C-alpha cells in the first residue's frame, strides 16, 4: 500500500506519460492530432517538464537535492517516452516526432519499429479494443527490461547489506 501512495510513483507515472498530454489542446479544438508529436515531444519539452517538476518538488520536499532528483527523474522519464515513440511505427504523416523543436521542425522516426501502431481514428471508445494488442506487445517487450532492472537493484542492495 505504501508504494501506491508514494509521490515518487505518481511522478514516474505522470512523467512517462506527460508528452502525450499534447493530445488535450487538440481534443478541445476537435482534432486530437493537431499538436500531437510536435513541441510536446521534444528535448526542449523534456527540459521544460523537468523545470516544471523542480518547483513543486522543492516546495514539497524542502530539499534541493531531492527536488533536483525529482526533476532529473521526471525529465529522464519524459525522454524515455520520446525514445519509445521514435521506435514505434507511425504510418500517418508527418511521421515521427519533432525531437529538436524549436531548433528544427523536422519530424524524426527510427527506421526500426519495435512497437506496432495504434490506429486512433476514430478517437472514441472503440480505440480500447484496438489498443489491447499494442499494449500486449509493449508489455512483452518492456516487462523483461523492468524485471532485469529490479533484479539489478535487488542484487546491488544485497551487496550493500552484506558489506555493512
Ligand atoms: Zn507520445
Describe the structure.
The chain has 164 residues and is an all-alpha fold. It is built from six helices and no strands. Helix 2 packs parallel to helix 5 and helix 4 (43-61) runs antiparallel to helix 5 (64-86). The protein is globular. Zinc ion is lined by residues 19-20, 41, 81, 85.
Secondary structure topology:
Elements: H1 2-5, H2 7-17, H3 23-29, H4 43-61, H5 64-86, H6 127-163
Helix pairs in contact: 2-5, 4-5
The chain binds zinc ion.
How many individual domains?
A: 2
Quickly count the helices: 6
- Distance linking N and C termini: 29 Å
Q: DSSP strand (E) fraction? A: under 5%
Main sheet: strands, sense, barrel: none
Bound molecules: zinc ion
Bin the helical content: 55-70%
Task: Report a brief summary of the structure.
It is built from six helices and no strands. It has 164 residues and is mainly α.
Amino acid at each position: 500500500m505504501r508504494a501506491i501512495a508514494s509521490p515518487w510513483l505518481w511522478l514516474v507515472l505522470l512523467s512517462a506519460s506527460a508528452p502525450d498530454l499534447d493530445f488535450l489542446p487538440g481534443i478541445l479544438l476537435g482534432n486530437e492530432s493537431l499538436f500531437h508529436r510536435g513541441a510536446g515531444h521534444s528535448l526542449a519539452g523534456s527540459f521544460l517538464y523537468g523545470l516544471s517538476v523542480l518547483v513543486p518538488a522543492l516546495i514539497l520536499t524542502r530539499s534541493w537535492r531531492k527536488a533536483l532528483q525529482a526533476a532529473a527523474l521526471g525529465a529522464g522519464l519524459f525522454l524515455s517516452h520520446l525514445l519509445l515513440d521514435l521506435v514505434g511505427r507511425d504510418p500517418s504523416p508527418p511521421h515521427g516526432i519533432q525531437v529538436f523543436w524549436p531548433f528544427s521542425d523536422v519530424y524524426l522516426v527510427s527506421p526500426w519499429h519495435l512497437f506496432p501502431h495504434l490506429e486512433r481514428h476514430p478517437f472514441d471508445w472503440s480505440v480500447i479494443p484496438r489498443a489491447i494488442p499494442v499494449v500486449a506487445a509493449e508489455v512483452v517487450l518492456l516487462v523483461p527490461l523492468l524485471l532485469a532492472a529490479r533484479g539489478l537493484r535487488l542484487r546491488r542492495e544485497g551487496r550493500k547489506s552484506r558489506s555493512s
